[in-house]
Specification:
Distance between the termini: 42 Å
Radius of gyration: 20 Å
Strand content: under 5%
Shape: globular
Low-confidence stretches: none
Mean pLDDT: 85
Number of strands: 0
Length: 270
């Protein structure tokens, strides 16, 4: 039976071609997959190095910070697989290549999502998964409905939050045009900050990444609940239960920014 217009068939065809082209050269693909794991291990090594000079950072031991890292970094890596290539949007806009996406009868965001899928990124979350297993087995955790519930909530909501941040940053590019570096400071800088205890953030960062962009909800706050630890200042453990509300908030911001950006764009003028 023929595919109906507007079905997922075009996206499946594009994804199949992308995957086929990347798997055509197996040694190159294997190198990229291993490199992604090594890069993740290097970032994890930064956390390990911090504890050569301090046994406790922001009220957390090494195993506690590892839990923060695993929850935040793993979720970011999942979002990066699907939405990470949206950071190429400023280039598309400058060169007028985005106009081609407007001419096709499919949603522009879905076109961009399938335009440059990199399967080499699939191994990157393995480092975070290993860190999560270590953290859950080397911390003194009182397992119960609340602990399991907040962990499950974080594993579901966190990738959505980071995906929304990617879309939010992409939507702003229609207004900023050459503002890729500015938004990357929040996307990638925010990801790095979220893998650290939010209790050590400066006040301005706590306000920005704690509530405006609720990245503290992805790692630090759930970790406090899982570990049964108190918070500091405005970032208290009970806020972690507002994770679904924080997810809805950042998704709404992303939707407004993306739709406003699409309406604002008037072409490259070439």
């Amino acid at each position: 039976m023929a595919e109906r217009p507007g079905s997922l068939a075009p996206y499946r065809a594009v994804l199949a071609s992308r995957i086929a082209s990347q798997t055509a050269y197996r040694p190159s693909l294997a190198f990229d997959l291993v490199t992604a794991v090594i890069l993740g291990a290097v970032e994890l090594g930064e956390v390990w190095l911090l504890f050569h000079n301090a046994t406790v950072i922001g009220g957390l031991t090494f195993s506690g910070v590892l839990l923060v890292f695993a929850l935040a970094d793993g979720s970011f890596c999942i979002a990066d697989v699907l939405f990470g290539h949206l950071d190429r949007l400023p280039r598309f806009i400058r060169l007028g290549q985005i106009d081609v996406f407007y001419l096709r009868p499919q949603p522009i965001l879905l076109q961009l999502m399938t335009a440059d899928i990199r399967i080499s990124r699939l191994t990157r979350p393995l480092v975070s998964a290993a860190a999560l297993v270590y953290a859950l087995t080397h911390n003194d955790i009182q397992w119960g409905p609340a602990t399991i519930g907040i962990l499950a909530m974080a594993l579901v909501c966190n990738p959505v939050i980071y995906s929304a941040v990617f879309v939010l940053a992409a939507g702003l590019q229609f207004f900023l045009v050459n503002g890729g570096e500015f938004t990357n400071a929040f996307v990638y800088g925010g990801r790095y900050a979220s893998t650290q205890p939010a209790s050590v953030w400066p006040t301005a960062v706590k306000v920005t990444l704690g509530f405006m962009l609720p990245l503290a909800f992805t790692g630090y706050l759930p970790a406090l609940v899982i570990l049964g630890l108190p918070g500091q200042g405005a970032l208290q453990p009970w806020l972690a239960w507002l994770l679904p509300a924080a997810t809805v908030w950042v998704v709404a911001l992303a939707a407004v920014a993306w739709r406003s950006g699409l309406r604002h764009y008037r072409g490259a003028g070439g």
